[in-house]
Design goal:
Elements lengths: L17 H6 L5 H8 L6 H11 L2 E2 L14 E3 L2 E3 L3 E3 L12 H11 L3 E4 L7 H7 L4 E5 L5 H13 L5 E4 L9 H5 L30 H6 L6 H8 L6 E6 L2 H10 L3 E4 L13 H12 L5 E4 L5 H9 L4 E4 L1 H33 L12 E2 L1
Parallel strand pairs: 4-5, 4-11, 5-6, 6-7, 7-8, 8-9, 9-10, 10-11
Antiparallel strand pairs: 1-12, 2-3
Helix pairs in contact: 4-5, 4-13, 10-11, 12-13
Length: 365
């Protein structure tokens, strides 16, 4: 039986990860399979969690923690904690208010919401419900005019950065979702794309590939990214980076920051866990360059491990939708508060008063 979202936090929620265990009672099974599933055999999906589970910390003693805090600065703006809400599509699948309630929850905890191009409410409506910390995740559209219009709308709506996702130009469908019979309901759509005409269907010549000449026909190129960088004054981050050479190249192009991510195990199955890719990318871009991690975060101690591997902040993906399904905006806010408290406890036990003190030396070899 699927329950409606609660107006209170259920007593079973003792830690952030508990939202995942409870969410199946509030999300229809096919929809849950779509959200929870990964691509292929889900090897990368499993590796994201295994990477954190296999990481051990090295606590330090006799540290002065009296001035402890979790504050940081990104692109000149202060943040009270390093948890951002990752862009997730079609959140009306789990709650009637979808991204609007997610935005309310983020605002309550001064967290940055990254609104998806594929949100089920228009980007302007999401911005109106979010706090002052909000970024817009951009998928390149087949027509540059549509891409540019999305950028201008995001600028006008007060989004503070653009997050360009580059690792999902072509994706294999989730076998788990297909086996569960998932289909996107007709009433749920990417509302921000309503003003733009549907892309023309590509006609393949004999011998053409449905992947290379078909699905990848409109995939963004380095030229498209260079064009975008010249169209906006907002900081542009690239999401989906797993290779150190790619990271160095993007930095040289003028990309303001990067998100180490394997799309939550939903892109190339067999790609490395985000946490494992992170140290090499940090070495490639050097210190001081904004680097975030996405993929596998389920606790405050996971965030600590990501920061110790070189991240400045982390994005929380599936957990936000699970919290939304369980308790709406209240659940999202409670999730963020719980993650921050878990991080503070981990920092205190490890002997780190600030995020700047969390480094590779905190990882037990």
């Amino acid at each position: 039986m699927v329950h409606r979202a609660l107006s209170h936090i259920p007593p079973e929620i003792l830690c952030a990860a508990d939202y995942e265990a409870l969410a199946g009672q509030f999300i229809a099974p096919p929809d849950f399979a779509y959200i929870a599933g990964g691509s292929g055999d889900e090897a990368t999906l499993r590796d994201n969690r295994a990477a954190f589970a296999g990481c051990r910390l090295r606590p330090r003693l006799l540290r002065d923690l009296s001035g402890g805090h979790t504050r940081l600065t990104l692109f000149g703006q202060g943040y009270p904690h390093p948890f951002l809400l990752a862009p997730l599509a079609y959140q009306q699948l789990v709650h009637p208010q979808g991204e609007l309630d997610t935005a309310h929850g983020a605002a309550a905890m001064d967290a940055c919401l990254v609104c998806s191009t594929l949100a089920s409410f228009p980007l302007e409506d999401v911005a109106a419900h979010a706090g002052e910390r909000r970024w817009f995740q951009l998928y390149f559209q087949p027509a540059r005019a549509a891409t540019l219009d999305l950028v201008r709308r995001a600028e006008a709506a007060g989004y503070g950065a653009l997050v360009v996702t580059l690792d999902a130009s072509v994706k294999a469908p989730s076998r788990r979702a297909l086996r569960a019979g998932f289909a996107l309901p007709p009433a749920i759509r990417a509302a921000s794309l309503d003003p733009y005409p549907a892309p023309a269907q590509r006609t393949l010549a004999p011998g053409d590939s449905v992947v290379f000449q078909g699905a990848m026909g409109d995939a963004p190129t380095a030229g498209d990214l260079a064009w975008l960088l010249g169209q906006t004054r907002l900081p542009v981050l690239v999401k989906g980076v797993l290779d150190a050479d790619d990271a160095h190249r993007l930095q040289a192009m003028g990309v303001a920051g990067q998100i180490v991510s394997n799309h939550g195990g939903r892109a190339l199955d067999g790609a490395p866990a985000s946490l494992h890719a992170l140290p090499g990318i940090r070495r490639a871009v050097g210190p001081g360059y904004p680097l975030l991690l996405d993929g596998g975060i389920r606790s405050g101690s996971d965030a600590f491990k990501a920061l110790a591997h070189g991240a400045d902040a982390v994005l929380v993906g599936r957990l936000q939708v699970y919290a939304l399904a369980v308790a709406g905006a209240l659940g999202v806010a409670h999730l963020l508060r719980t993650l921050r408290e878990e991080l503070e406890l981990c920092m205190a036990q490890a002997g780190c008063a600030t995020l700047a003190e969390i480094g590779p030396q905190m990882i037990h070899p």
